[in-house]
Amino acid sequence: MVLGAAFGEGILDEKRGNKALLFGVIRGAILNLNVFFGKLFYYNEMDLILFHRGFMHSILFFVLAAFVLCWLVHKL
Fold it and tell me: Where is the chain membrane-spanning (predicted)?
């Protein structure tokens, strides 16, 4: 999450201020939140790891997540 905050601060301009940090933290945390939500669907540790390292780290997910996050940032 710290890396995401630093990235948000470095990429976004100074007009956004602390929002850049917040968006960076959110973006850094989203990738690992699926571990907590995956436990609701997968009871086997191997399936949980495959879900986390499989789809959630795929290029398809990054493209889809980029559009969703850009839309959310635009609305905020």
Answer: 20-42, 54-74
